[in-house]
Amino acid sequence: MAYIFEEPSRTFNEYLLVPGYSSSENRPENVSLKTPLTKFKKGEEPAISLNIPMISAIMQAVSDDGMAVALATEGGMSFIYGSQTIADEAAMVARVKAYKAGFVVSDSNLTPQMTLGEVVALAEKTGHSTMPVTDDGTAHGKLVGIVTERDYRLSRMSLDEKVADFMTPRAELITAPADTTLKQANDIIWDNKLNSLPLIDTDDKLAYMVFRKDYDSHKSNPNEMLDEHKRYMVGAGINTRDFAERVPALVDAGVDCLCIDSSEGYSEWQALTLKWIRDHYGDSVKVGAGNVVDAEGFRFLADAGADFIKIGIGGGSICITREQKGIGRGQATATIEVARARDEYFKETGVYIPLCSDGGIVYDHHITLALAMGSDFVMLGRYFARFDESPSNKVMVNGSYMKEYWGEGSARARNWQRYDLGGDKQKMSFEEGVDSYVPYAGSLKDNVGLTLSKVKSTMCNCGALTIAELQDKAKLTVVSSTSIVEGGAHDVLQKDKTPYVSNAN
Ligand code: XMP
């Protein structure tokens, strides 16, 4: 007879945390959100830890190289989407690894023949007021001058005037060699009262620009995820079909961690993929696997050698897997059961396998709940898709700014490998995801900062200064449907939802 899980399968919305004793030490500034990304033996340190418990989803609408840099700056990690060619995915990874924080490849470049009118138009388009002038107008052409707002006065000049006639010429510019460190560049900027410093190669070609304001903001990112060469860390998605070609290309590009991206992880394909990686790279290549929703699935992937395991089927905001196929499990129940299995596994083997709750995070407090339930970090798609840094289009829908966000199982993504159950068909028979809009929310930095301030605050209420302590001390309660109503504003008319009010006196 079929096995029936008697307990209902619950979502994050059905739980609340009950506060524990908090001492005077339990202040948000004392909380550390550092958390393991990859497995480790008792008494040892993980090879990779995240500085904040957030990774971005392996999705076309979420994780490209731009998102990866923005998230690594804040202490998390992106997993670049695998539903693209191997060369394109590897190139994105390589761009993240080559990115030098504080060193800008200029995107607003001029030639000496351009006019003041063109300068004004470019400044409006890019929002940048400092523009290098190069012989060919490219970011790495031979430097011949610079134009800043101080070089022209619109009220007194004709828009036809040539850049060559009003730029600050090369001979008057202070520059530095391309191998100058950020600290040295900043010292030159300060000593010479500059706003920017061009770094040039030996043949006078422009390499980077360093800006005074960027150095200051670089210093204000204490959580940056950096490798031993001070490069940003980045992950990448792989599938169970072309791993023999994809994995070597990503490793060559410098990827820090891989993750098998699949809608269902309890499968021989995942074990074969993990085995191939271990056979070819031993433990030097780190790889997560998933997704699973019960103890059995966890055991399978743990024994197969996964470095971390992802939890979740059908809970994602754009997922329709549960509707289409009738498989899945409430994200909270899945997280709790898999975490119990992980803790038992740790007791038995002395190996701690980090868990990632993937999908279904709607409110910021769902992150805290997922951590309290035993997850070590969370994967977010919808959350990150809303930000400036996501690769998708920003559009206006009914008067509001939105970003496009589509599932990897939607026809738009064409990611058949993620839903592959073997065979030669190489295409999806039906969709498991939708194409949608999500409200535009501004910059990643501002939003992550706000979200994590809430997470830290709740952790303090639970008497926890670390995620491990939260997992240990948290008390969770199932809420009734009426207590959910009680939890929001109720029995009042909210002013921001009441547009038409007149004075009754
Ligand atoms: P959120 O809720 O953060 O979920 O938007 C992101 C996660 O959803 C999964 N995903 C999908 N699942 N059909 C599915 O059933 C899809 O088209 C799809 N696309 C992404 C994935 O695990 C992601 O991290």
Automatic annotation (TrEMBL):
Binding-site residues, K(+): G314, G316, C319
Residues holding NAD(+): D261, S262, S263, G312, I313, G314
Database matches in InterPro entries: Aldolase_TIM, CBS_dom, CBS_dom_sf, IMP_DH, IMP_DH/GMP_Rdtase_CS, IMP_DH_GMPRt
UniProt record, GO biological process: GMP biosynthetic process; GTP biosynthetic process
Descriptive protein name: IMP dehydrogenase/GMP reductase
Gene3D superfamilies per UniProt: Aldolase class I
Organism of origin: Cryptobacterium curtum (strain ATCC 700683 / DSM 15641 / CCUG 43107 / 12-3)
SMART domains: CBS (SM00116), IMPDH (SM01240)
Cofactor(s) listed in the protein's UniProt record: K(+)
UniProt catalytic activity: IMP + NAD(+) + H2O = XMP + NADH + H(+)
Family: Belongs to the IMPDH/GMPR family.
CDD domains, per the entry: CBS_pair_IMPDH, IMPDH
One Pfam family named in its UniProt record: CBS
This protein's record includes keyword ATP-binding: no
Keyword RNA-binding attached: no
Domain CBS residues, every copy: 103-166, 167-225
Classification lineage: Bacteria, Bacillati, Actinomycetota, Coriobacteriia, Eggerthellales
